[in-house]
């Protein structure tokens, strides 16, 4: 053996658990058991069942005719024009909604964090309150606001600018924009997270920048954005995942039909119709797993890029 090579230290022997430690572990498992049971029953087992189902032609009405079809359902996806239409609708909405879901809450957080603003707590509460309203109720409210004939948004555009507002929910060129506007209704939670990040930025950095003659936009880009980049990354990840799972608002607005002219036939809406309207459960499970794989890959890619633009005070590992 080379005398210059240091021998590896022996791993410390594991000490047996004391009765008190075992008791703590057992109590921890007892308190976790409701979540564990719920996760197994409502998440893990259904995922395994749906994965198995994706390799079959299962139809609950013709359950006796169920047979194993291998990867036939997965190949069917690439021959289904409605899948490509649904993917296109979803991607267009992602490009509209995701940037706005970061920019708008950040702008509101900057507003309610400004020292010059009077009644900041009132504004924070008002911006957050819509987040507490159920999604279905919010969509019904916005359906009235965006009504092309009686909605107050078009009436305001006519009164203030003399402009005839578009048919927000009936025009396929405007309906995705209308759904994005509906999304503004619930940005209060993201705004509070952004606000918490802004309030954690050390004030010494701004003071030093002012001494060096930095302008407000420069301080925002060079101090604020890097310091809250982990918060932006967190919200971006959740927004990306949530937008790809977009369903409820589109279902209510179009009564599940994807109107107008398929412009709101999101991927999840098509998945729902395939599985629960047409009862093609095998193909529906395949669509669900393809969505899971795509979102997983995009999330992994997003995490791979974080070292290039996300700043952690403790350093990037």
Which helices and strands, and how do they pair?
Layout: H1 19-53, H2 72-77, H3 81-113, H4 120-128, H5 135-145, H6 152-161, H7 175-183, H8 188-199, H9 203-211, H10 216-227, H11 229-244, H12 248-254, H13 267-277, H14 281-309
Helix pairs in contact: 3-4, 3-7, 3-8, 3-11, 3-13, 5-12, 11-14, 13-14
Can you summarize this structure?
This protein is mostly helical and 317 residues long.
Provide keyphrases for this structure.
317 residues; MetI-like fold; 14 helices; 0% strand
Describe this structure in words.
- The chain has 317 residues and is an all-alpha fold.
- The protein folds into two domains: 23-65; 78-309, MetI-like (MetI-like fold).
- The chain is built from 14 helices and no strands.
- The protein has helices spanning 19-53, 72-77, 81-113, 120-128, 135-145, 152-161, 175-183, 188-199, 203-211, 216-227, 229-244, 248-254, 267-277, 281-309.
- Helix 11 (229-244) packs antiparallel against helix 14.
- The chain is globular and about 75 Å long.
- It starts with 18 loop residues before the first helix and ends in an 8-residue tail after the last helix.
């Amino acid at each position: 053996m080379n005398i210059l090579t240091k021998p590896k230290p022996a791993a410390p022997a594991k000490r047996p658990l004391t009765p008190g430690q075992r008791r703590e572990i057992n109590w921890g498992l007892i308190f976790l058991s409701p979540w564990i049971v719920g996760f197994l029953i409502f998440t893990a087992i259904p995922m395994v069942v749906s994965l198995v189902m994706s390799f079959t032609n299962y139809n609950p009405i013709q359950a006796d005719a169920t047979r194993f079809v291998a990867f036939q359902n997965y190949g069917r996806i690439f021959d289904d024009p409605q899948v490509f239409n649904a993917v296109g609708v979803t991607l267009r909405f992602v490009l509209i909604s995701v940037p706005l879901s970061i920019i708008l809450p950040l702008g509101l957080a900057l507003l309610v964090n400004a020292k010059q603003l009077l009644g900041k707590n009132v504004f924070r509460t008002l911006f957050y309150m819509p987040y507490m309203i159920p999604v279905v109720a919010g969509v019904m409210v916005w359906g009235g606001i965006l009504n092309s004939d009686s909605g107050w948004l078009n009436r305001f555009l006519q009164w203030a600018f003399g402009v005839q507002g578009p048919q927000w929910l009936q025009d396929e060129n405007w309906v995705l924009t209308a759904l994005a506007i509906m999304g503004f209704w619930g940005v209060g939670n993201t705004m509070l997270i952004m606000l918490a990040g802004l309030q954690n930025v050390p004030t010494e950095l701004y003071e030093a920048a002012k001494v060096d003659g930095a302008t407000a936009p420069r301080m925002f880009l060079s101090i604020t954005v890097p310091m809250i980049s982990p918060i932006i990354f967190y919200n971006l990840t959740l927004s990306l995942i949530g937008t790809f799972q977009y369903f409820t608002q589109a279902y209510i607005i179009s009564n599940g039909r994807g109107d107008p002219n398929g412009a709101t036939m999101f991927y999840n809406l098509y998945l729902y119709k395939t599985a629960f309207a047409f009862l093609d459960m095998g193909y529906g499970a395949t669509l669900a797993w393809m969505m899971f794989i795509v979102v997983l890959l995009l999330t992994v890619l997003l995490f791979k890029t974080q070292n290039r633009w996300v700043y952690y005070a403790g350093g990037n590992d």
